[in-house]
Design a protein that fits this description.
Strand content: over 45%
Shape: elongated
Number of strands: 4
Strand order of the largest sheet: 1-2-3-4
Distance between the termini: 9 Å
Largest sheet: 4 strands, antiparallel
Number of helices: 0
Length: 68
Amino acid sequence: MITSRIINRNTENERNLRFEYENKNKNKNGKWFRSYGNENWEFNKNGLMEKRYASINDLEIQEKDRRL
């Protein structure tokens, strides 16, 4: 799996990021997929994640169309 992440917001207890990754799915006849979206994380005072919100989209791609 190849990943690209961009952090948009970084505070003491929050992280907001955009991501994109590509992987070859072994369960779908070896087809390539690009997954992309946004994630919001909130952490407690001990640094443990309390909330995670994610919006993720999967797109089937041809190997020649890989970007990462």
